[in-house]
């Protein structure tokens, strides 16, 4: 299979982890006889420094021409401490999502048994958890009108949704529920918010076309509590942009670390694949970042954008085998991990590639 893949490393640890996502793609292409061609582009703080623009036109042009994008992260401490900065790295990310029409963010909460102890939650509560979040990406308070009064003492962010924005992600989520355990939970705040009342109305209408899927509606406050009380209760979770942002970070603790979770942003064209974590200035440039979320993002790309299920399963299995062999980065190590098994970014990435080599003749379903 011939594919053009754009790599956008971004800032901070984005650069370190994406290197390993790309190496995995190269290995897969070699092993399965695919023809993956790579190009690279800048976004975020590095792009502001180089061009003054967090999403240069050249990057957007390359993104539009590619079949899939592997992204690292954006962000720099300088902007975190200066909320008044007009040009900001995250504008690049919001703009590329809009321009590519990426309306659904998929975040699988994949729990490796070997990491049951890395979570702050009890292993017996976590074991067997398998959730797929669908977070809406193009509406909500992120894009509504923003206002600050002249005396600077009043601020507002408009939360808004169009029916079509809710419909298209709801259909994708129901389709996924049909392929999984046929359970879907839609999370909103319909007791308070008008946008949530529209959300619930649309989900209820579309649910009628999927009678084989058991549909539940839950308020966000209850969902946030149930997620840590009984995460196995959930399978497909469908929610709006802001609620999804918060819930999925909460859910990252189920998997043990932000460094383990991958995500896919999809629309009707090019797919965008990235770890859920940010640029992590606190550990950037120190070879401490966990590259597994970037590698698992590659597995999502192979399956969702290219339909390469066997290759995707191969990547996930290589990660599982690396963990089974006891190797850990600092974020997923616990007090039972021997110091010689705690690896840096480069060493962990290399271990996953070694696991590939050992599995040459194994067939994965
Ligand atoms: N999608 C994105 O690009 C994205 C997402 C979130 C935050 N950000 C940006 O990233 C910057 C830092 O934000 P933050 O600190 O809130 O979130 P973060 O995800 O960068 O880091 C949160 C914590 O998790 C740790 N961590 C994150 N990824 C890790 C990994 N792969 N391996 C090991 N540890 C890891 C960090 O060291 C930090 O302690 C900010 O500028 C923010 O705007 C970008």
TrEMBL record:
<comment type="function">
    <text>Catalyzes the oxidation of 3-carboxy-2-hydroxy-4-methylpentanoate (3-isopropylmalate) to 3-carboxy-4-methyl-2-oxopentanoate. The product decarboxylates to 4-methyl-2 oxopentanoate.</text>
</comment>
<dbReference type="GO" id="GO:0009098">
    <property type="term" value="P:L-leucine biosynthetic process"/>
</dbReference>
<feature type="domain" description="Isopropylmalate dehydrogenase-like">
    <location>
        <begin position="4"/>
        <end position="352"/>
    </location>
</feature>
<feature type="binding site">
    <location>
        <position position="221"/>
    </location>
    <ligand>
        <name>Mg(2+)</name>
    </ligand>
</feature>
<dbReference type="InterPro" id="IPR024084">
    <property type="entry name" value="IsoPropMal-DH-like_dom"/>
</dbReference>
<feature type="binding site">
    <location>
        <position position="221"/>
    </location>
    <ligand>
        <name>substrate</name>
    </ligand>
</feature>
<feature type="binding site">
    <location>
        <position position="97"/>
    </location>
    <ligand>
        <name>substrate</name>
    </ligand>
</feature>
<feature type="binding site">
    <location>
        <position position="107"/>
    </location>
    <ligand>
        <name>substrate</name>
    </ligand>
</feature>
<dbReference type="GO" id="GO:0000287">
    <property type="term" value="F:magnesium ion binding"/>
</dbReference>
<keyword id="KW-0432">Leucine biosynthesis</keyword>
<keyword id="KW-0028">Amino-acid biosynthesis</keyword>
<comment type="pathway">
    <text>Amino-acid biosynthesis; L-leucine biosynthesis; L-leucine from 3-methyl-2-oxobutanoate: step 3/4.</text>
</comment>
<feature type="site" description="Important for catalysis">
    <location>
        <position position="189"/>
    </location>
</feature>
<feature type="site" description="Important for catalysis">
    <location>
        <position position="142"/>
    </location>
</feature>
<feature type="binding site">
    <location>
        <position position="249"/>
    </location>
    <ligand>
        <name>Mg(2+)</name>
    </ligand>
</feature>
<keyword id="KW-0464">Manganese</keyword>
<keyword id="KW-0479">Metal-binding</keyword>
<dbReference type="GO" id="GO:0005829">
    <property type="term" value="C:cytosol"/>
</dbReference>
<comment type="similarity">
    <text>Belongs to the isocitrate and isopropylmalate dehydrogenases family. LeuB type 1 subfamily.</text>
</comment>
<feature type="binding site">
    <location>
        <position position="245"/>
    </location>
    <ligand>
        <name>Mg(2+)</name>
    </ligand>
</feature>
<dbReference type="GO" id="GO:0051287">
    <property type="term" value="F:NAD binding"/>
</dbReference>
<dbReference type="InterPro" id="IPR019818">
    <property type="entry name" value="IsoCit/isopropylmalate_DH_CS"/>
</dbReference>
<keyword id="KW-0963">Cytoplasm</keyword>
<keyword id="KW-0560">Oxidoreductase</keyword>
<keyword id="KW-0460">Magnesium</keyword>
<keyword id="KW-0100">Branched-chain amino acid biosynthesis</keyword>
<dbReference type="GO" id="GO:0003862">
    <property type="term" value="F:3-isopropylmalate dehydrogenase activity"/>
</dbReference>
<dbReference type="Pfam" id="PF00180">
    <property type="entry name" value="Iso_dh"/>
</dbReference>
<comment type="subunit">
    <text>Homodimer.</text>
</comment>
<feature type="binding site">
    <location>
        <position position="135"/>
    </location>
    <ligand>
        <name>substrate</name>
    </ligand>
</feature>
<dbReference type="InterPro" id="IPR004429">
    <property type="entry name" value="Isopropylmalate_DH"/>
</dbReference>
<protein>
    <recommendedName>
        <fullName>3-isopropylmalate dehydrogenase</fullName>
        <ecNumber>1.1.1.85</ecNumber>
    </recommendedName>
</protein>
<keyword id="KW-0520">NAD</keyword>
């Amino acid at each position: 299979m011939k594919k053009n893949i754009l790599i956008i490393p971004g800032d901070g640890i984005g650069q370190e982890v994406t290197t390993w996502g790309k190496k995995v793609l190269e290995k897969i292409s070699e092993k399965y006889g695919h023809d993956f061609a790579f190009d690279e582009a800048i976004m975020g703080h590095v792009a502001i420094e180089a061009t003054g623009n967090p999403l240069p036109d050249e990057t957007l042009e390359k993104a539009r021409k590619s079949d899939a994008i592997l992204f690292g992260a954006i962000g720099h401490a300088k902007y975190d401490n200066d909320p008044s900065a007009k040009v900001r790295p995250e504008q690049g990310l919001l703009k590329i999502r809009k321009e590519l029409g990426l309306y659904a963010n998929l975040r699988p909460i994949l729990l490796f048994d070997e990491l049951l102890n890395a979570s702050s939650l009890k292993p017996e509560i976590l074991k067997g958890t398998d959730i797929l979040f669908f977070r809406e990406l193009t509406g909500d308070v992120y894009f509504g009108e923003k206002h600050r009064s002249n005396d600077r003492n009043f601020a507002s962010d408009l939360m808004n949704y169009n029916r079509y924005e809710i419909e298209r992600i709801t259909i994708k989520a129901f389709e996924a529920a049909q392929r999984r355990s046929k359970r879907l939970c839609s999370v909103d705040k319909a007791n308070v918010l008008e946008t949530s009342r529209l959300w619930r109305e649309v989900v209820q209408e579309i649910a009628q076309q999927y009678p084989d899927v058991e549909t539940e509606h839950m308020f966000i406050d209850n969902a946030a509590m149930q997620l840590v009380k009984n995460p196995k209760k959930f399978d497909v979770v469908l929610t709006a942009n802001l609620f999804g942002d918060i819930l999925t970070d909460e859910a990252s603790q189920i998997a043990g670390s932000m460094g383990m979770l991958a995500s896919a942003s999809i629309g009707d064209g090019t797919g965008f694949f990235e770890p859920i974590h940010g640029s992590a200035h606190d550990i950037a440039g120190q070879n401490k970042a966990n590259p597994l979320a970037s590698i698992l993002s590659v597995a999502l790309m192979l399956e969702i954008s290219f339909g390469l299920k066997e290759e995707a399963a191969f990547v996930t299995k290589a990660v599982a085998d690396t963990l089974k062999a006891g190797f850990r980065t600092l974020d997923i190590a616990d007090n039972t991990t021997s110091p010689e098994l705690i690896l840096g970014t480069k060493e962990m990435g290399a271990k996953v590639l070694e696991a590939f080599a050992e599995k040459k003749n194994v067939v994965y379903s």
